[in-house]
Protein backbone atom coordinates (compact mmCIF):
# COMPACT_ATOMS: atom_id res chain seq x y z
CA UNK A 1 0.00 0.00 0.00
CA UNK A 2 1.28 3.47 -0.88
CA UNK A 3 2.04 5.58 2.19
CA UNK A 4 1.54 9.30 2.54
CA UNK A 5 4.61 11.30 1.65
CA UNK A 6 3.77 14.94 2.19
CA UNK A 7 6.41 17.30 3.63
CA UNK A 8 5.97 18.27 7.29
CA UNK A 9 5.49 21.92 6.31
CA UNK A 10 3.00 21.16 3.52
CA UNK A 11 0.47 24.00 3.27
CA UNK A 12 -2.92 22.29 3.31
CA UNK A 13 -5.57 24.92 2.80
CA UNK A 14 -8.31 26.55 0.81
CA UNK A 15 -8.79 29.44 -1.59
CA UNK A 16 -11.31 32.19 -2.23
CA UNK A 17 -11.28 35.53 -4.08
CA UNK A 18 -12.43 38.90 -2.77
CA UNK A 19 -14.86 39.50 -5.64
CA UNK A 20 -16.59 36.15 -5.12
CA UNK A 21 -16.75 36.14 -1.33
CA UNK A 22 -16.55 39.56 0.31
CA UNK A 23 -19.71 41.30 -0.89
CA UNK A 24 -20.04 44.79 0.64
CA UNK A 25 -19.50 46.10 -2.88
CA UNK A 26 -20.35 49.74 -2.22
CA UNK A 27 -19.66 50.37 1.46
CA UNK A 28 -16.74 51.78 3.44
CA UNK A 29 -15.49 53.64 0.38
CA UNK A 30 -15.13 50.73 -2.02
CA UNK A 31 -15.38 51.57 -5.74
CA UNK A 32 -16.83 49.52 -8.59
CA UNK A 33 -14.70 46.80 -10.13
CA UNK A 34 -15.11 44.66 -13.23
CA UNK A 35 -16.62 41.98 -10.96
CA UNK A 36 -19.51 44.28 -10.07
CA UNK A 37 -20.56 44.18 -13.73
CA UNK A 38 -20.75 40.36 -13.83
CA UNK A 39 -24.34 39.18 -14.13
CA UNK A 40 -26.09 35.99 -13.19
CA UNK A 41 -27.40 34.70 -16.49
CA UNK A 42 -29.88 31.88 -15.74
CA UNK A 43 -30.79 31.40 -19.39
CA UNK A 44 -27.22 30.92 -20.60
CA UNK A 45 -25.96 27.37 -21.05
CA UNK A 46 -23.50 26.85 -18.18
CA UNK A 47 -21.17 25.11 -20.64
CA UNK A 48 -21.16 28.11 -23.00
CA UNK A 49 -18.13 29.85 -21.53
CA UNK A 50 -18.07 32.62 -24.16
CA UNK A 51 -21.56 33.85 -23.24
CA UNK A 52 -20.82 33.45 -19.54
CA UNK A 53 -17.88 35.81 -19.60
CA UNK A 54 -18.57 38.35 -22.35
CA UNK A 55 -19.35 41.92 -21.26
CA UNK A 56 -20.43 44.58 -23.77
CA UNK A 57 -20.34 48.40 -23.46
CA UNK A 58 -24.12 48.37 -23.03
CA UNK A 59 -23.86 45.92 -20.14
CA UNK A 60 -21.24 48.10 -18.46
CA UNK A 61 -23.45 51.16 -18.66
CA UNK A 62 -26.45 49.21 -17.38
CA UNK A 63 -24.45 47.92 -14.40
CA UNK A 64 -23.25 51.41 -13.51
CA UNK A 65 -26.84 52.66 -13.35
CA UNK A 66 -28.17 50.12 -10.86
CA UNK A 67 -27.57 49.08 -7.28
CA UNK A 68 -29.14 45.68 -7.91
CA UNK A 69 -27.50 42.74 -6.18
CA UNK A 70 -29.95 40.01 -7.22
CA UNK A 71 -28.65 39.70 -10.78
CA UNK A 72 -25.19 40.97 -9.86
CA UNK A 73 -24.44 38.36 -7.19
CA UNK A 74 -20.76 39.17 -6.74
CA UNK A 75 -21.90 42.42 -5.18
CA UNK A 76 -23.21 40.50 -2.17
CA UNK A 77 -20.93 37.45 -2.31
CA UNK A 78 -21.25 35.42 0.88
CA UNK A 79 -20.68 38.51 3.04
CA UNK A 80 -17.16 37.43 3.98
CA UNK A 81 -16.47 41.13 4.58
CA UNK A 82 -18.62 41.04 7.74
CA UNK A 83 -18.38 37.32 8.59
CA UNK A 84 -14.68 36.63 8.04
CA UNK A 85 -14.03 35.88 11.74
CA UNK A 86 -16.77 33.25 11.72
CA UNK A 87 -15.36 31.72 8.55
CA UNK A 88 -11.76 31.77 9.77
CA UNK A 89 -12.87 30.06 12.97
CA UNK A 90 -14.39 27.26 10.87
CA UNK A 91 -11.19 26.98 8.84
CA UNK A 92 -9.11 26.91 12.00
CA UNK A 93 -11.22 24.10 13.49
CA UNK A 94 -10.62 22.22 10.25
CA UNK A 95 -6.89 22.63 10.87
CA UNK A 96 -6.29 24.68 7.74
CA UNK A 97 -2.63 25.72 7.39
CA UNK A 98 -3.07 28.25 4.59
CA UNK A 99 -5.84 30.36 3.07
CA UNK A 100 -5.51 31.98 -0.31
CA UNK A 101 -7.35 35.30 -0.53
CA UNK A 102 -7.13 38.36 -2.76
CA UNK A 103 -7.09 42.07 -2.07
CA UNK A 104 -9.79 44.04 -3.87
CA UNK A 105 -7.94 46.90 -5.57
CA UNK A 106 -11.05 49.09 -5.35
CA UNK A 107 -11.26 48.67 -1.59
CA UNK A 108 -7.91 50.43 -1.29
CA UNK A 109 -8.14 52.72 -4.34
CA UNK A 110 -11.81 53.11 -5.41
CA UNK A 111 -11.02 54.31 -8.94
CA UNK A 112 -7.40 53.16 -9.02
CA UNK A 113 -6.17 56.73 -9.48
CA UNK A 114 -6.24 58.08 -5.91
CA UNK A 115 -2.95 59.28 -4.44
CA UNK A 116 -3.65 57.86 -0.98
CA UNK A 117 -5.40 54.61 -0.04
CA UNK A 118 -8.79 54.26 1.60
CA UNK A 119 -8.22 53.82 5.35
CA UNK A 120 -11.26 51.55 5.72
CA UNK A 121 -9.85 49.16 3.15
CA UNK A 122 -6.46 49.08 4.84
CA UNK A 123 -8.11 48.38 8.19
CA UNK A 124 -10.20 45.50 6.81
CA UNK A 125 -7.29 43.62 5.32
CA UNK A 126 -5.00 44.32 8.25
CA UNK A 127 -7.61 42.88 10.60
CA UNK A 128 -8.19 39.91 8.28
CA UNK A 129 -4.50 39.01 8.13
CA UNK A 130 -3.98 39.55 11.86
CA UNK A 131 -6.84 37.18 12.61
CA UNK A 132 -5.39 34.60 10.24
CA UNK A 133 -2.03 34.91 11.96
CA UNK A 134 -3.66 34.53 15.38
CA UNK A 135 -5.29 31.29 14.24
CA UNK A 136 -2.11 29.94 12.68
CA UNK A 137 -3.43 30.21 9.11
CA UNK A 138 -0.79 31.36 6.61
CA UNK A 139 -2.14 33.98 4.18
CA UNK A 140 -1.42 33.43 0.49
CA UNK A 141 -2.42 36.73 -1.08
CA UNK A 142 -3.26 37.40 -4.73
CA UNK A 143 -2.77 41.02 -5.73
CA UNK A 144 -4.98 40.93 -8.84
CA UNK A 145 -7.82 38.41 -9.04
CA UNK A 146 -10.29 39.73 -11.63
CA UNK A 147 -10.92 42.87 -9.55
CA UNK A 148 -9.71 45.74 -11.72
CA UNK A 149 -11.27 49.15 -10.98
CA UNK A 150 -14.04 49.79 -13.49
CA UNK A 151 -12.92 53.42 -13.73
CA UNK A 152 -9.67 52.27 -15.34
CA UNK A 153 -11.63 50.29 -17.93
CA UNK A 154 -13.78 53.28 -18.85
CA UNK A 155 -11.07 55.95 -18.80
CA UNK A 156 -7.81 54.10 -19.59
CA UNK A 157 -8.92 51.13 -21.75
CA UNK A 158 -7.77 48.88 -18.95
CA UNK A 159 -4.31 47.37 -19.04
CA UNK A 160 -3.82 48.55 -22.63
CA UNK A 161 -2.72 51.83 -21.08
CA UNK A 162 0.87 52.01 -19.84
CA UNK A 163 -0.30 54.35 -17.08
CA UNK A 164 -2.13 51.48 -15.39
CA UNK A 165 1.21 49.81 -14.64
CA UNK A 166 2.21 52.72 -12.41
CA UNK A 167 -1.21 52.80 -10.75
CA UNK A 168 -1.04 49.09 -10.01
CA UNK A 169 2.48 49.34 -8.59
CA UNK A 170 1.28 52.10 -6.25
CA UNK A 171 -1.41 49.69 -5.07
CA UNK A 172 1.16 46.90 -4.63
CA UNK A 173 3.54 49.18 -2.74
CA UNK A 174 0.80 50.01 -0.24
CA UNK A 175 -0.09 46.33 0.15
CA UNK A 176 3.52 45.36 0.83
CA UNK A 177 4.14 48.20 3.26
CA UNK A 178 0.90 47.74 5.18
CA UNK A 179 0.54 43.97 5.23
CA UNK A 180 4.09 42.63 5.05
CA UNK A 181 4.22 41.91 8.80
CA UNK A 182 1.39 39.39 8.33
CA UNK A 183 1.91 38.00 4.80
CA UNK A 184 4.88 35.95 3.58
CA UNK A 185 3.48 34.51 0.32
CA UNK A 186 2.18 36.63 -2.55
CA UNK A 187 0.86 36.02 -6.07
CA UNK A 188 0.78 38.70 -8.75
CA UNK A 189 -1.98 37.97 -11.31
CA UNK A 190 -4.58 35.25 -11.08
CA UNK A 191 -4.57 33.06 -14.20
CA UNK A 192 -2.67 35.62 -16.25
CA UNK A 193 -3.19 33.36 -19.28
CA UNK A 194 -6.95 34.05 -19.24
CA UNK A 195 -6.57 37.23 -21.32
CA UNK A 196 -8.15 35.68 -24.39
CA UNK A 197 -10.78 33.63 -22.54
CA UNK A 198 -12.28 36.72 -20.92
CA UNK A 199 -10.35 39.89 -21.80
CA UNK A 200 -12.76 42.25 -20.03
CA UNK A 201 -12.45 40.46 -16.70
CA UNK A 202 -8.70 39.88 -16.95
CA UNK A 203 -7.30 43.07 -18.48
CA UNK A 204 -10.29 45.40 -18.93
CA UNK A 205 -10.41 45.11 -22.72
CA UNK A 206 -13.88 45.72 -24.17
CA UNK A 207 -13.62 44.03 -27.56
CA UNK A 208 -16.45 46.03 -29.17
CA UNK A 209 -14.33 49.18 -28.82
CA UNK A 210 -11.97 47.86 -31.49
CA UNK A 211 -12.65 47.92 -35.20
CA UNK A 212 -12.02 44.23 -35.76
CA UNK A 213 -10.71 41.05 -34.20
CA UNK A 214 -7.15 41.82 -35.27
CA UNK A 215 -7.11 45.16 -33.44
CA UNK A 216 -8.61 43.55 -30.35
CA UNK A 217 -5.90 40.88 -30.39
CA UNK A 218 -3.24 43.58 -30.67
CA UNK A 219 -4.75 45.38 -27.66
CA UNK A 220 -4.91 42.19 -25.58
CA UNK A 221 -1.23 41.38 -26.20
CA UNK A 222 -0.32 44.96 -25.29
CA UNK A 223 -2.31 44.68 -22.07
CA UNK A 224 -0.64 41.35 -21.34
CA UNK A 225 2.81 42.89 -21.75
CA UNK A 226 1.88 45.55 -19.23
CA UNK A 227 0.82 42.84 -16.78
CA UNK A 228 4.11 40.99 -17.31
CA UNK A 229 5.94 44.24 -16.62
CA UNK A 230 3.78 44.95 -13.56
CA UNK A 231 4.47 41.46 -12.21
CA UNK A 232 8.21 42.06 -12.45
CA UNK A 233 7.95 45.51 -10.89
CA UNK A 234 5.78 44.15 -8.06
CA UNK A 235 8.47 41.56 -7.40
CA UNK A 236 11.02 44.37 -7.26
CA UNK A 237 8.88 46.33 -4.78
CA UNK A 238 8.35 43.34 -2.50
CA UNK A 239 12.06 42.62 -2.30
CA UNK A 240 12.67 46.20 -1.22
CA UNK A 241 10.32 45.68 1.71
CA UNK A 242 11.19 42.08 2.64
CA UNK A 243 13.84 40.01 0.94
CA UNK A 244 12.60 36.85 2.68
CA UNK A 245 8.99 37.04 1.43
CA UNK A 246 8.11 34.90 -1.59
CA UNK A 247 6.19 35.95 -4.68
CA UNK A 248 4.89 33.67 -7.41
CA UNK A 249 3.12 33.70 -10.74
CA UNK A 250 -0.18 31.92 -11.31
CA UNK A 251 -1.34 30.12 -14.43
CA UNK A 252 -4.25 27.95 -15.50
CA UNK A 253 -2.93 24.47 -16.21
CA UNK A 254 -4.93 23.14 -19.14
CA UNK A 255 -3.06 20.00 -20.11
CA UNK A 256 -3.95 18.65 -23.57
CA UNK A 257 -3.63 15.06 -24.79
CA UNK A 258 -3.57 13.93 -28.43
CA UNK A 259 -6.68 11.90 -29.21
CA UNK A 260 -4.76 9.32 -31.22
CA UNK A 261 -1.15 8.35 -32.01
CA UNK A 262 -1.55 10.33 -35.24
CA UNK A 263 1.46 12.71 -35.24
CA UNK A 264 -0.85 15.52 -36.33
CA UNK A 265 -2.91 15.05 -33.15
CA UNK A 266 0.29 14.98 -31.08
CA UNK A 267 1.47 18.19 -32.73
CA UNK A 268 -1.82 19.95 -31.96
CA UNK A 269 -1.58 18.92 -28.30
CA UNK A 270 2.05 20.06 -28.12
CA UNK A 271 1.18 23.46 -29.61
CA UNK A 272 -1.68 23.88 -27.17
CA UNK A 273 0.50 23.00 -24.17
CA UNK A 274 3.32 25.22 -25.36
CA UNK A 275 1.00 28.19 -25.61
CA UNK A 276 -0.27 27.44 -22.11
CA UNK A 277 3.31 27.65 -20.78
CA UNK A 278 4.08 30.95 -22.53
CA UNK A 279 2.56 33.03 -19.76
CA UNK A 280 4.61 31.47 -16.98
CA UNK A 281 7.73 31.31 -19.18
CA UNK A 282 7.95 35.10 -19.28
CA UNK A 283 7.64 35.43 -15.50
CA UNK A 284 10.05 32.58 -14.70
CA UNK A 285 12.67 32.97 -17.43
CA UNK A 286 12.31 36.74 -17.72
CA UNK A 287 11.96 36.88 -21.50
CA UNK A 288 9.49 36.28 -24.31
CA UNK A 289 10.10 32.86 -25.92
CA UNK A 290 11.24 32.91 -29.53
CA UNK A 291 8.12 31.13 -30.79
CA UNK A 292 5.97 33.99 -29.51
CA UNK A 293 8.25 36.57 -31.13
CA UNK A 294 7.86 34.62 -34.36
CA UNK A 295 4.08 34.61 -33.93
CA UNK A 296 4.04 38.38 -33.43
CA UNK A 297 6.11 38.88 -36.60
CA UNK A 298 4.04 36.54 -38.74
CA UNK A 299 0.73 38.03 -37.54
CA UNK A 300 1.82 41.68 -37.70
CA UNK A 301 1.41 42.21 -33.95
CA UNK A 302 3.47 45.03 -32.49
CA UNK A 303 3.81 45.02 -28.72
CA UNK A 304 5.16 48.39 -27.66
CA UNK A 305 7.99 48.08 -25.16
CA UNK A 306 9.79 50.96 -23.52
CA UNK A 307 13.53 50.98 -23.20
CA UNK A 308 14.45 48.89 -20.17
CA UNK A 309 11.31 46.68 -20.19
CA UNK A 310 13.22 43.57 -21.20
CA UNK A 311 15.85 44.18 -18.53
CA UNK A 312 13.14 44.53 -15.87
CA UNK A 313 11.51 41.26 -16.94
CA UNK A 314 14.88 39.50 -16.80
CA UNK A 315 15.94 40.91 -13.43
CA UNK A 316 12.77 40.41 -11.38
CA UNK A 317 11.51 36.88 -11.89
CA UNK A 318 9.25 34.94 -9.54
CA UNK A 319 10.20 32.64 -6.67
CA UNK A 320 7.67 29.88 -7.31
CA UNK A 321 5.04 28.78 -9.81
CA UNK A 322 1.41 28.34 -8.80
CA UNK A 323 -1.49 27.13 -10.89
CA UNK A 324 -5.13 26.18 -11.02
CA UNK A 325 -6.08 22.74 -12.26
CA UNK A 326 -9.61 21.62 -13.08
CA UNK A 327 -9.68 19.60 -16.28
CA UNK A 328 -7.68 18.29 -19.22
CA UNK A 329 -8.27 18.67 -22.94
CA UNK A 330 -8.11 16.40 -25.96
CA UNK A 331 -6.85 17.58 -29.34
CA UNK A 332 -7.62 16.07 -32.73
CA UNK A 333 -7.35 17.18 -36.34
CA UNK A 334 -10.92 15.90 -36.76
CA UNK A 335 -12.39 17.61 -33.68
CA UNK A 336 -14.97 19.60 -35.66
CA UNK A 337 -16.93 16.39 -36.13
CA UNK A 338 -16.59 15.02 -32.60
CA UNK A 339 -18.53 15.25 -29.35
CA UNK A 340 -17.46 18.19 -27.20
CA UNK A 341 -17.45 18.97 -23.51
CA UNK A 342 -16.77 22.33 -21.91
CA UNK A 343 -16.60 24.44 -18.80
CA UNK A 344 -15.67 28.03 -18.11
CA UNK A 345 -12.17 27.40 -19.48
CA UNK A 346 -12.73 26.16 -23.00
CA UNK A 347 -14.32 23.37 -24.99
CA UNK A 348 -12.60 20.10 -25.80
CA UNK A 349 -13.11 16.81 -27.56
CA UNK A 350 -14.66 14.41 -25.07
CA UNK A 351 -12.17 12.05 -23.48
CA UNK A 352 -13.83 8.59 -23.39
CA UNK A 353 -11.71 7.58 -20.38
CA UNK A 354 -12.88 10.39 -18.09
CA UNK A 355 -16.05 11.32 -16.24
CA UNK A 356 -17.43 14.85 -16.45
CA UNK A 357 -18.86 17.09 -13.74
CA UNK A 358 -22.29 18.75 -13.71
CA UNK A 359 -20.72 21.66 -15.59
CA UNK A 360 -18.92 19.66 -18.27
CA UNK A 361 -15.45 19.54 -16.71
CA UNK A 362 -13.46 16.40 -17.50
CA UNK A 363 -12.26 15.01 -14.17
CA UNK A 364 -8.68 13.79 -14.45
CA UNK A 365 -6.68 13.25 -11.21
CA UNK A 366 -3.76 11.64 -13.05
CA UNK A 367 -3.51 14.75 -15.22
CA UNK A 368 -2.67 16.69 -12.07
CA UNK A 369 0.33 14.44 -11.44
CA UNK A 370 1.44 14.83 -15.06
CA UNK A 371 1.05 18.62 -14.79
CA UNK A 372 3.08 18.83 -11.57
CA UNK A 373 5.93 16.85 -13.09
CA UNK A 374 5.90 18.83 -16.33
CA UNK A 375 5.84 22.22 -14.57
CA UNK A 376 8.60 21.30 -12.13
CA UNK A 377 10.80 19.79 -14.83
CA UNK A 378 10.35 22.91 -16.96
CA UNK A 379 10.99 25.56 -14.32
CA UNK A 380 12.92 23.90 -11.47
CA UNK A 381 11.07 26.07 -8.97
CA UNK A 382 8.75 25.08 -6.10
CA UNK A 383 5.20 24.44 -7.29
CA UNK A 384 1.96 25.39 -5.50
CA UNK A 385 -1.51 24.09 -6.43
CA UNK A 386 -3.65 27.10 -5.53
CA UNK A 387 -6.95 26.10 -7.15
CA UNK A 388 -8.60 22.74 -7.66
CA UNK A 389 -12.09 21.53 -6.91
CA UNK A 390 -15.37 20.14 -8.13
CA UNK A 391 -18.42 22.33 -8.71
CA UNK A 392 -21.52 20.31 -7.87
CA UNK A 393 -25.23 20.65 -7.14
CA UNK A 394 -25.23 19.93 -3.42
CA UNK A 395 -28.36 18.85 -1.56
CA UNK A 396 -28.75 20.36 1.91
CA UNK A 397 -30.52 17.92 4.24
CA UNK A 398 -30.81 17.95 8.04
CA UNK A 399 -28.25 20.69 8.50
CA UNK A 400 -25.51 19.28 6.29
CA UNK A 401 -24.52 18.01 2.84
CA UNK A 402 -23.57 14.38 2.29
CA UNK A 403 -20.97 14.99 -0.41
CA UNK A 404 -19.15 11.68 -0.87
CA UNK A 405 -18.55 12.71 -4.49
CA UNK A 406 -16.46 15.68 -3.30
CA UNK A 407 -14.55 13.48 -0.87
CA UNK A 408 -13.76 11.03 -3.66
CA UNK A 409 -12.71 13.84 -6.00
CA UNK A 410 -10.21 15.31 -3.55
CA UNK A 411 -8.98 11.95 -2.34
CA UNK A 412 -8.12 10.99 -5.92
CA UNK A 413 -6.37 14.31 -6.58
CA UNK A 414 -4.48 14.40 -3.27
CA UNK A 415 -3.13 10.92 -3.91
CA UNK A 416 -1.79 12.00 -7.29
CA UNK A 417 -0.04 14.94 -5.62
CA UNK A 418 1.45 12.47 -3.15
CA UNK A 419 2.78 10.44 -6.08
CA UNK A 420 4.20 13.54 -7.79
CA UNK A 421 6.07 14.41 -4.60
CA UNK A 422 7.44 10.87 -4.56
CA UNK A 423 8.50 11.49 -8.17
CA UNK A 424 10.65 14.36 -6.87
CA UNK A 425 8.41 17.38 -7.39
CA UNK A 426 8.81 20.16 -4.80
CA UNK A 427 5.16 20.91 -3.96
CA UNK A 428 4.62 23.74 -1.47
CA UNK A 429 0.97 23.15 -0.76
CA UNK A 430 -2.58 22.68 -2.01
CA UNK A 431 -5.33 25.28 -1.51
CA UNK A 432 -8.66 23.85 -2.64
CA UNK A 433 -10.86 26.22 -4.59
CA UNK A 434 -13.95 27.64 -2.89
CA UNK A 435 -13.27 25.92 0.44
CA UNK A 436 -16.51 27.60 1.52
CA UNK A 437 -19.31 28.04 -1.03
CA UNK A 438 -18.82 31.29 -2.96
CA UNK A 439 -20.24 32.95 -6.06
CA UNK A 440 -18.99 31.18 -9.19
CA UNK A 441 -16.50 33.13 -11.29
CA UNK A 442 -18.07 32.35 -14.64
CA UNK A 443 -21.78 31.78 -14.08
CA UNK A 444 -22.18 34.13 -11.08
CA UNK A 445 -24.28 31.58 -9.27
CA UNK A 446 -23.81 29.87 -5.92
CA UNK A 447 -25.62 26.64 -6.84
CA UNK A 448 -22.34 25.61 -8.47
CA UNK A 449 -20.86 24.72 -5.09
CA UNK A 450 -17.24 23.88 -4.35
CA UNK A 451 -16.99 24.26 -0.59
CA UNK A 452 -16.47 22.11 2.46
CA UNK A 453 -18.83 24.56 4.15
CA UNK A 454 -22.37 25.10 2.89
CA UNK A 455 -23.69 28.68 2.76
CA UNK A 456 -27.48 29.09 2.99
CA UNK A 457 -27.92 31.21 -0.11
CA UNK A 458 -29.51 30.64 -3.49
CA UNK A 459 -28.76 32.02 -6.94
CA UNK A 460 -31.07 35.00 -6.40
CA UNK A 461 -29.44 35.99 -3.11
CA UNK A 462 -32.15 34.54 -0.88
CA UNK A 463 -31.17 32.85 2.36
CA UNK A 464 -29.80 33.36 5.86
CA UNK A 465 -26.11 33.27 4.84
CA UNK A 466 -25.58 30.83 7.71
CA UNK A 467 -22.68 28.37 7.43
CA UNK A 468 -22.91 24.58 7.81
CA UNK A 469 -19.98 22.13 7.57
CA UNK A 470 -20.50 19.36 5.01
CA UNK A 471 -19.32 15.76 5.36
CA UNK A 472 -16.24 16.72 3.35
CA UNK A 473 -15.33 19.31 6.01
CA UNK A 474 -14.70 16.61 8.60
CA UNK A 475 -12.98 14.39 6.05
CA UNK A 476 -10.55 17.18 5.05
CA UNK A 477 -9.94 17.94 8.75
CA UNK A 478 -8.72 14.36 9.15
CA UNK A 479 -6.53 14.60 6.03
CA UNK A 480 -4.84 17.73 7.38
CA UNK A 481 -4.29 16.46 10.91
CA UNK A 482 -2.68 13.26 9.57
CA UNK A 483 -0.74 15.14 6.87
CA UNK A 484 -2.36 12.99 4.23
CA UNK A 485 -1.94 9.59 5.90
CA UNK A 486 -5.71 9.19 6.28
CA UNK A 487 -6.03 9.11 2.48
CA UNK A 488 -4.90 5.51 2.67
CA UNK A 489 -7.02 4.58 5.67
CA UNK A 490 -10.42 6.13 5.00
CA UNK A 491 -12.92 3.43 4.08
CA UNK A 492 -15.52 6.09 3.29
CA UNK A 493 -13.50 7.19 0.28
CA UNK A 494 -13.32 3.64 -1.05
CA UNK A 495 -17.08 3.34 -0.73
CA UNK A 496 -17.86 6.76 -2.13
CA UNK A 497 -18.34 5.50 -5.66
CA UNK A 498 -18.38 7.67 -8.76
CA UNK A 499 -18.93 11.41 -9.02
CA UNK A 500 -22.43 12.68 -8.45
CA UNK A 501 -24.09 13.33 -11.80
From TrEMBL:
Alphabetized UniProt keyword annotations: Glycosidase, Hydrolase
Biological process (GO), any one: carbohydrate catabolic process
Claim: Zinc is one of the keywords in the record: no
Molecular-function GO terms, alphabetical: beta-glucosidase activity
Active site (record annotation): 387
Gene Ontology CC: one annotated term: cytosol
Family, similarity comment: Belongs to the glycosyl hydrolase 1 family.
Protein name as it appears in the record: 6-phospho-beta-glucosidase
Organism: Schleiferilactobacillus perolens DSM 12744
Amino acid sequence: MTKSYFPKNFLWGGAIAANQAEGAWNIDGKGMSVADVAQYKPNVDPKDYVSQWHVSPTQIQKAMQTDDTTYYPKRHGIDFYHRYKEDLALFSKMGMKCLRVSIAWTRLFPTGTESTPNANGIAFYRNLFKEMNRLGIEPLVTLAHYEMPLYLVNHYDGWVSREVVDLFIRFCRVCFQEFNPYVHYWLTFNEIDSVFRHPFTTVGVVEEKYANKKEAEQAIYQALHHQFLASALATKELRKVDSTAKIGCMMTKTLAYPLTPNPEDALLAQQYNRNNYFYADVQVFGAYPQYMKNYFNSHDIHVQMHQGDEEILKQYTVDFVSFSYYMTMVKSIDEDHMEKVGGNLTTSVKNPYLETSDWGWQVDPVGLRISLIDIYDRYHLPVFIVENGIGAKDTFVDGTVHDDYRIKYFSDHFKQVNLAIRDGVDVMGFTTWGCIDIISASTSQISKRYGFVYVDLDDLGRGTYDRYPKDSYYWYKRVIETNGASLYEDSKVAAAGSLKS
